[in-house]
Amino acid sequence: MEGAVADLSVKEIHDRLSHGVIADHDDLMGMGECLNLLERLEAAEDQEGPSRERISRIKEILNGLILEEHENPAREWEELRAQLNTLVGNMETVKGDRLTHDAGEPWPPPEKDDSDIFATLAGDYSVHSSSNFPETATQGPMPIGDPELARDFIEEAREHLASIELNMISLESSPSDTEAINAVFRPFHSIKGVSGFLNLTSFHHLSHEVENLLDSARSGSLTIDEPVIDVVLGSVDVLKILLDDLENALNGDGVLPSPSPLVEPLIEKVRELQKSQGDAAQPGTQQGPRLGSILLEKGLVDEDSIEEAARRSSDRGTRIGEELVAMGVVTESQLGEALKEQVQSREASSVRVDTQKLDNLVDMVGELVIAQSMVLQNEDVKRIKDQKLQKDMSQLGRITAELQRISLSMRMVPIRGTFQKLIRLVRDLAKKSGKEAVLEMSGEETEIDRNMVELIYEPLVHMIRNSMDHGIELPQERMKDGKPSQGKIHLSAEQKGGSILINIIDDGRGLDVDKIRRRALNREIISPGDKLDDRAIYDLIFHPGFSTKDAVTEVSGRGVGMDVVKKSVDRLRGKIEISSSLGHGSHFALKLPLTMAIIDGMIIRVGDERFIVPTIALKESLRPSSDSHFTVQNKGEMIKVRETLMPLIRLHEVFDVKPRSASPWEGLLLVVNDDNRYYGLLADEIIGRQEVVIKNLGSSLRNLKGISGGAILGDGRVALILDVKGMVSLYEEGAQ
Amino acid sequence: MVYKDMTVLVVDDFSTMRRIVRNILRDLEFKNILEADNGASALDVLNAQEVHLVVSDWNMPKMSGLELLKSVRSNEKTKDLPFLMVTAESQKENIVEAVKARVSNYIVKPFTAATLAEKLAKIIPPN
To answer: Domain containing B32: what range?
Structure first.
């Protein structure tokens, strides 16, 4: 702002003021100019008392005119004129400066027009009453004005609300982080703005109140503490509900339900907070040093001037950039450039694409890869010995492989969103149970197939609940054990090969092997003679019968146990492993495929048919000896692998094909595990291991038990993918 | 110049709001309406083509409306460009800052086509 008037002498300021800088009551730019001049004057001169007072009075009037706040603008206008005249005149006499003062009116609008101007001005005031906010419309049910806009609003508002939770959490640890406050403030601000236009009163009122609250936080007059965070998160929840209501109304009769009863009490709460916390003033936080480093890099400034600007800006509560401009080290446009750079470094541009289109693309690329390998495997093509063709073919192969990689990666999204929701969960659970706990995260940037995101959320929730409920102890208990009263759950993700590894590590009490064993015995999940190592005992908590109603506390809540986790993980073709140390904590390691579109499979042969077994389901494969084969009464064929006796499932019988050999000791046994029980699948041989793209079977075959899909192999033939779980239950049904 | 021959740039981070403003501008017979979702991209648009009017929100991530205004005013090419700041009733006091930075005028959300027309009449010189 000083830019335009910075170099003026007092005399020049007087000149300008006396010539009249404001054209008429609509000339906001003139008023701004006038304000700048006055401030300049204030700063430049040791004014005498009366002048100083006059300047602040003039500024006050101008502010009022700008904001259209005065009751009687005509009178203010008149006073402004008089005051300015006197100010310029006084200074003339006081300073004795020889001003070549225009004899004409220093204040332009001619008397005649005044009445008219003020008439319109007064008219404006009746419209913009300075009440809290315009009381929009009826409270009762009302039709939604523009459904299409409303739908956009719903989608966009949800997106923005989702971002609030994380920022609130980071505010919990650093309450004066202005960036984070702004990031929370903005969604409320935008929701308020749009709902004002759309006449969505409930949204408008609630977001308005929260916005006010956060605005106080921005200005430093309110500290973000626990109650504030609670009420903001509460508002997010209510706004989400309101959005759901709105969506339902749009899909239904188009009439909004009357104002939600949830809104008013919340508004009350917000207001109370605002009132109770009104006066704890805090200095505004400064912008980080990054702008400085950008300017440094560009060679526009040296370190000394940045330090100087930083000092000044903290003295005056301005921004470093402004000070640098004021000091004349950089120009406004250079600053603008740097700010732009600062911004651009943070944002990657993106395009929104319909997920259906993306899925189609991935499918088509899958087809392309297969079509390519069909061409390559074609006997006639194979016979061509042309070097150029070979070279081109391998080039084609590289391109399609890259294309496949890229198209799959487009469907990948960071796991961050899923993790963030859990922060909130831990917070809420801790509150409810009187425990103290914090969720730490790492590797949130790890990417995962969009289609997997929702599927892994549920098991993660159960595991976190489990850790909070059974792992983390009450604060006093923790203190007694010499642990910090606040428990810690660490959630991490990393990509390894074609899998994503998710670790949940807590520093709670750990799993008690004896206790688990006792309960498993009680519930007759194991028998007293069973010899189980620690890991096998840990795995017992995944048994459907292990967690029962009376073992479930208020926190675990829904009466579901870890068996649900196991089931979801199985469905995702994943694996879960537990390790634990009594008194020190537990570690749940989850291994999931990155995508559901591709699996790592073992291609096996049964007779003339080929099948694919997901590698992750396979425990081991071996050729059994003839003396390990038994037939047990009522149980059918069993096979003994080392010490474990397991049912033998003959795949050739299941699929009704003629095997190369019917004797297990001439074939190959694939050991699989389901619900802690082992089964041996009998095949002829393993052909190889390959990543295959899963194709859904047509609708008529979709519900076929034991088969989860099909894949087209390199030679163009289809191989069915075995669903181990389905296979086992098929077997169990047959046995009963 | 009449509204339908003018190019207007709407700056707001919330796309629904941009649509609302665009609809209102259409009601006033504006034909060429450009959009930007933050101050920085607005500057890019202003650099790339001729714009006759900017309607910008105050509160945006990264580069606020005020910062955008200052940047626009410091550029010789755009220093007199009509710039209308959109603000909320509760943030109105900030407008003085924008006025000092030579904003052409401001408008308080929510507004109607009539109010906008009134404001535009004040800041766009008649032919």
So the answer is: 3-116
Same fold, A358-411 and A598-735: no
Chain B residue with CA closest to A346: the answer is B62
So where are chain A's domains?
2-127, 147-276, 290-343, 358-411, 413-593, 598-735
**Closest-CA distance of chain B to residue A191, Å:** 9
Residue A149 — φ and ψ, nearest 5°? -60, -40
The rounded average pLDDT for each run of 10 residues, N- to C-terminus, in chain A (736 residues) is 54 72 77 84 67 81 82 79 76 36 38 35 36 36 65 86 79 78 85 84 86 82 81 88 85 70 82 65 38 74 78 71 78 76 58 81 81 80 86 88 83 85 86 88 86 84 88 90 90 83 92 87 82 84 68 47 82 86 91 78 90 87 87 85 89 88 88 83 88 73 77 79 85 75
The answer for A 76-135 residues in CB contact with B (under 8 A) is 127-128, 132-134
Query: Best mutation site among A219, A339, A345 for testing chain B: the one with the most B CBs within 10 Å?
Result: A339
Return the structure tokens found at B87. 């603000």
Residue B127 lies in a domain: no
Q: How many domains does chain B have?
A: 1
Minimal Cβ distance to A32: which of B17, B62, B102:
B102
Q: Does the residue B55 lie in any domain?
A: yes
May I ask the CATH architecture of the domain A358-411? Orthogonal Bundle (1.10)
Tell me which CATH code domain A413-593 carries.
3.30.565.10
Using the Cβ of A63 and the Cβ atoms of chain B, whether some distance falls under 8 Å is answered with yes
- Asked, for residue B126, whether it belongs to a domain, the answer is no
Q: Choose the closest CB to A156 out of B16, B103, B115.
A: B16
CB of A200 within 8 A of CB of A256? yes
pTM beyond cutoff 0.95: no
Whole-number Å distance between alpha carbons of A383 and A380: 5
Terminal Cα-to-Cα distance of chain A (whole angstroms): 86
C-alpha–C-alpha distance, residues A359 and A407, integer Å: 9
ipTM given for this complex: 0.86
Contacts of A192 in chain B (CB under 8 A): 88
Closest alpha carbon to A335 in A305, A360, A315: A305
Q: Which residues of A touch B88 (CB under 8 A)?
A: 189, 192-193, 211
Superfamily assignment of A147-276 in CATH?
A: HPT domain (1.20.120.160)
Q: What is the 3-state secondary structure (H, E, C) of A289-354?
A: CHHHHHHHHCCCCCHHHHHHHHHHHHHHCCCHHHHHHHCCCCCHHHHHHHHHHHHHCCCCCCCCCC
Residues A598-735: name the CATH superfamily: SH3 Domains (2.30.30.40)
